[in-house]
Amino acid sequence: MKQNNFFYLFRVNFFTGLAIVLPGLISIGLLFWFFGTVSNFTDTLLFFLPHKLTHPVSADGREGAIYWYWSLAALAVSFILVVLTGRFARYYMGRQAIALADHLIMQVPLLNKIYSTVKQVNEAFSSNKSSFKQVVLVAFPHPNARSIGFVTGEHKSMPMQTETLISVFIPTTPNPTSGFMIMMPERDITKLDMTVAEGIKFIISLGAISPVFNAAPGSASHAALSEAQPASK
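Request: output the structure for the sequence above.
Response:
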């Protein structure tokens, strides 16, 4: 009986400790993986330096991995290049050069699909460039289901319609660059009090990263909820 209790306590303590330690280990592992992956790319920026200076050489003549401080220097150089690219893009010649590079990349098969997908996701996360105006909750694909969508526009003059229609993009998961575009009356839409970035994260994470779903102030759903609450004394 004591042996059973020992194994039971051991199992409980092990899984409790694992639940505490695992998130930290995964976070550290991902950090090292990300730094290693980025370093493998940025280290090539030091091509103008002799390898004897940036890499250790063993007694048998074999070349080792790049010194960590040179890897950090390459990372700093990459940040400077990104800043300079952003500065260059503010001028007319810079915008034309970027547009030309965009055009050339889009002519390459397979690469154009990857590039366009990454670019659309990046624009969706960028608040100043996103075409998404509001995160909403709609009845889709059937009346008893609910889907997260993004308002992309309003249409006040549509044939055979007397009320304003709202165009809503409902992305697929985990790839939010494809989905469905539906048009529905504003009264059938629940506006959510969350940012576009939070909505995108919710979709990409398959619902694992769940924000608080509150109706946006001023929406019909928010007003209905306010009226349903009893008045405080």
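The longest strand covers residues 147-155.
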